[in-house]
């Protein structure tokens, strides 16, 4: 991937601690101009904390971060003028109309008076909200609110748009439309997009992904490169006697399967040749066999030994705990 | 679901944002924060109507009830009925309650996320505190002055001069209490917490302010408390102005005294203004603390 040098986001040894708890344990990264950079990991992995430090909302415990070439510790206001933010939780005034929300933003971000109306109209059109500009936000759907927040984040023409879980809680179709809009923004405005997500399928849309776990980056590359690291194809079988099946696969086929939710999962070089051998040689009963190309789920599983989806239930609680800690920290 | 990966951007990087004068940006922010509060207030007509119910209830039920049981005992021949005495106090009460509850919007905004949008903006935090205090001041002023339409029913004559004098006095009382509310709200994390604290402070503030009874001939301890209540210095001048022009004698004799001396109206307004300024200072400091 040949790109212009000169990172728009640079982080070196970024650390955030809350007392004994280390939320972010030393992160290094560089984001190139015009790319969509995804921060992928289970909830509680340190994604939101990292994005908050880059956006100057949290002060790092240690390390350096430069956003748009400006040190986040040195001049937070200058950084904020150059970045757009879309928070995980909604932050619109739903008593006001879409246009009024944007006008408010244009004022506090010092958008020059002659440009205000034009830019607001442009962003509303781009996010397909023009016909609802005069409706109160409380009448909007979740997807419309998100689009309005993205429009708002872009109003002061930031170099970088930060989005923290922009598609959380949206249905698949709405998520897809949000992605179409983000791609359009990148193409038409040349804005760099930095986003966090715990949806693996979404991470595929990013140019590059950093996989984060326990506050550290465990891998950073393009989605294709990351998947190539898994090595070959993924074969999953279910059996009534998984222990016996696992032993046979090990001894007869020389592959060590991993347990994944009661199923047996293995990575093999040539899946299409492997499956017939597997079915022929195994004496243990096999219920189902599936063969697929590796996904980012497999990458995550390989790198961390856990599936990301297992965490989703407890994740929300952990996330809440993190959020309240964050709020408490800000108000102290 | 697969979105077509977009072509590499061919456009130039976004225009470099021109350096922004933060001082000027903060002034604009004060304006827009104030404007948003007023807009929301105006849009919420029901709140406007509902907030008139309480003063009316006080005037009609409390006022009429006490008027008839006190009979001529009140005012000692000054020609003042209790309900006339109470009327300016109820204007003050309306200002007091709406100024303080107006500040609740800060806690509300925090709960619903909007405060974040304001706090991350590249503006000085003091602008947020000032914008909010002015927004609350405006709302409270309107809530109080709107009650002037009841004057003919109460038997109080208003002149143009009265109204001209009342506007700044109502503004000063509203500003003092709105700043007080913003200062409290800036320390509060939850809506419930704010309400509890407010009730603990607001009700005594109201009862001791002289809105319902003259602050003369009180027991010693109560005299001290009423003179410590900042609202006293805002309500007393409103009463004197409202009643002075309606031909009622001895109005100043009901006025707020310290050591038997009746305080001049400008001094009372000055005390109220100073109270507001100090509390606004507290709010600014609270808003500027981060992390």
Give your account of this protein's structure.
The complex is a heterodimer of chains A (332) and B (291). Chain A is of the alpha/beta class and 332 residues long. Chain A folds into 2 domains: 9-222, P-loop containing nucleotide triphosphate hydrolases (Rossmann fold); 232-293, ACT domain (Alpha-Beta Plaits, 2-Layer Sandwich), CATH 3.30.70. Chain A contains 12 helices and 14 strands. Chain A has helices at 47-54, 76-82, 98-108, 113-126, 142-154, 172-189, 200-203, 223-230, 242-253, 271-281, 296-304, 312-331, and strands at residues 9-18, 21-31, 36-40, 62-67, 70-71, 83-86, 160-164, 192-197, 208-213, 216-221, 233-239, 258-260, 263-268, 286-292. In chain A, the strands form 3 sheets. A 6-stranded mixed sheet of chain A has the order 6-7-8-3-9-10, with helices on both faces. Chain A has a 4-stranded antiparallel sheet with strand order 2-1-4-5, with helices on one face. In chain A, a hairpin with a 2-residue loop joins β9 and β10. Chain A starts with 8 loop residues before the first strand and ends with a helix. Mean pLDDT of chain A is 86; it is low at 310-314. Chain B has 291 residues and is an all-alpha fold. Chain B has one domain (23-66, 78-288). Chain B is built from 12 helices and 2 strands. Chain B has helices spanning 22-43, 45-70, 82-102, 104-111, 114-119, 125-145, 151-154, 160-187, 191-207, 220-228, 230-244, 265-288, and strands spanning 257-258, 261-262. Chain B has a two-stranded antiparallel ribbon. The radius of gyration of chain B is 23 Å and the shape is elongated. The two termini of chain B are 40 Å apart. The model of chain B is unreliable at 1-17 (pLDDT under 50). Classes of the chains: A alpha/beta (332), B mainly alpha (291). At the A-B interface, α2, α3, α6 and α12 of A face α1 and α5 of B.
């Amino acid at each position: 991937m040949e790109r212009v040098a000169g990172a728009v986001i640079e982080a070196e040894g970024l650390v955030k601690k809350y007392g004994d708890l280390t939320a972010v344990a030393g992160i290094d990264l560089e984001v190139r101009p015009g790319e969509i950079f995804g921060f992928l990991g289970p909830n509680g992995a340190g994604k939101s904390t990292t994005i908050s430090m880059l956006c100057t909302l949290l002060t790092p415990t240690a390390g350096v971060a430069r956003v748009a070439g400006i040190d986040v510790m040195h001049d937070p206001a200058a950084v904020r003028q150059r970045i757009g933010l879309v928070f995980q939780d909604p932050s619109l005034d739903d008593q006001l109309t879409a246009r009024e929300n944007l006008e408010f933003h244009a004022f506090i971000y010092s958008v020059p008076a002659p440009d205000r109306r034009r830019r607001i109209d442009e962003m509303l059109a781009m996010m397909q909200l023009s016909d609802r500009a005069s409706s109160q936000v409380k009448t909007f759907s979740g997807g419309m609110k998100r689009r309005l927040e993205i429009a708002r984040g872009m109003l002061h023409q930031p170099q970088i748009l930060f989005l923290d879980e922009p598609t959380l809680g949206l249905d698949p179709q709405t998520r897809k439309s949000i992605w179409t809009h983000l791609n359009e923004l990148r193409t038409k405005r040349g804005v760099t997009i930095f986003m966090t997500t715990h949806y693996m399928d979404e991470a595929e849309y990013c140019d590059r992904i950093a996989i984060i776990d326990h506050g550290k980056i465990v891998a950073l590359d393009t989605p294709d490169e990351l998947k190539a690291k898994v090595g070959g194809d993924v074969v999953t079988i279910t059996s009534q006697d998984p222990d016996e099946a696992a032993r046979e696969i090990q001894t007869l086929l020389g592959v060590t399967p991993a347990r994944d939710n009661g199923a047996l999962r293995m990575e093999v070089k040539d899946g299409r040749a492997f499956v017939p051998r597997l079915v022929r040689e195994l004496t243990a009963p096999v219920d189902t066999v599936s063969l697929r190309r590796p996904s980012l789920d497999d990458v995550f599983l390989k790198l961390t030994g856990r599936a990301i989806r297992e965490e989703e239930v407890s994740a929300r609680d952990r996330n809440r705990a993190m959020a309240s800690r964050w709020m408490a920290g800000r108000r102290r | 679901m697969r979105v077509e990966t977009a072509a590499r951007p061919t456009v130039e990087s976004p225009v470099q944002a021109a350096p922004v004068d933060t001082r000027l940006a903060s002034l604009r922010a004060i304006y827009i924060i104030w404007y948003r509060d007023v807009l929301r207030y105006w849009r919420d007509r029901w709140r406007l109507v509902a907030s008139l119910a309480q003063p009316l209830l006080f005037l009609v039920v409390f006022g009429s009830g006490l008027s008839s049981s006190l009979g001529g005992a009140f005012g000692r021949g000054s020609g003042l009925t209790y309900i006339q005495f109470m009327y300016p106090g109820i204007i003050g009460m309306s200002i007091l309650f709406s100024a303080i509850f107006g500040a609740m919007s800060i806690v509300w905004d925090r709960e619903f996320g909007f405060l974040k949008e304001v706090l991350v903006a590249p503006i000085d935090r003091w602008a947020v505190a000032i914008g909010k205090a002015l927004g609350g001041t405006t709302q409270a002023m309107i809530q109080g002055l709107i009650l002037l339409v009841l004057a003919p029913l109460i038997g109080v004559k208003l002149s143009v001069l009265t109204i001209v004098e009342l506007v700044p006095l109502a503004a000063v009382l509203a500003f003092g209490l709105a700043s007080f509310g913003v200062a409290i709200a800036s320390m509060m994390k939850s809506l419930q917490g704010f309400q509890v604290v407010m009730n603990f402070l607001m009700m005594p503030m109201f009862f001791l302010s002289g809105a319902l009874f003259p602050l003369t001939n009180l027991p010693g301890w109560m005299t001290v408390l009423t003179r410590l209540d900042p609202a006293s210095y805002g309500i007393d001048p409103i009463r004197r102005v409202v009643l002075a022009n309606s031909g009622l004698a001895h109005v100043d004799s009901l006025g707020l005294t310290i050591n038997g001396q009746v305080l001049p109206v400008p001094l009372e307004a000055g005390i109220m203004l100073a109270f507001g300024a100090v509390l606004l200072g507290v709010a600014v400091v609270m808003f500027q603390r981060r992390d």
